[in-house]
Amino acid sequence: MNSVQRLLAASVISIQNSCFIYPACQNCFSRLILDSRRFSCLKCGCTGEAKDASYRYRLSLKIADTNDLFDVTVFGSCLDPFFGVTAENLQRYIQDFNQLSGETNTESSTRALVQAVETCFIGKRFIFGV
Q1: Which residues pair with 122 in a beta bridge?
Q2: Do 46 and 102 contact (CB within 8 A), yes or no?
Q3: pTM
Q4: pLDDT tens digit string along 27-83?
Q5: Rounded CA gap, 2 and 74, in Å?
Q6: Could you read off the pLDDT of 89-130 as tens digits, one per residue?
Q7: How far apart are alpha carbons 34 and 28 in whole angstroms?
Q8: Where are the domains of the chain?
Q9: Domain Replication factor A C-terminal: where (predicted)?
């Protein structure tokens, strides 16, 4: 699945999701189900304490080259340079910010993050391995 079939130079038209970080299984990278104390992976059955859950980037984009539109999803640590930190650390920063600011509704921090990601990506040209 990780082998690149073709390189595609394209511009980002839009961001397709507002949740760029997800709790990921260390074994299979599937999304974990979290409750207040535990996590579990529906795909491989891995379980553990919620505080030990790992996080991973998942950025869904609509891109365009000179002829076509494409929906692509970029996963993992290749996004670290764009965010400036690992997904794990960004998740921790967001949680710390929400706690320090007394935010019970995380909508404002989510909105700020979406705006920053849109500014970073929309209208910019990248080379995608597809």
Answers
A1: 12
A2: no
A3: 0.83
A4: 999 999 998 899 999 999 999 999 999 999 999 999 999 999 999 999 999 999 999
A5: 12
A6: 999 998 888 888 776 667 777 888 899 999 999 999 999 988
A7: 16
A8: 16-60+74-122
A9: 9-95
Structure token pair of residue 59: 């950025």
pLDDT reading at 1 higher than 60: no
**Separation between Cα atoms, residue 91 and residue 105, nearest integer Å:** 16
CA-nearest of 6, 1, 16 to 65 is: 6
DSSP of 57-118, one letter per residue?
EEEEEEEE-SS-EEEEEEEGGGGHHHHSS-HHHHHHHHHHHHHHTT-SSTHHHHHHHHHHHH
Amino acid at position 86, single letter: T
Q: Could you tell me whether strands 32-34 and 125-129 are parallel, antiparallel, or unpaired per DSSP bridges?
A: unpaired
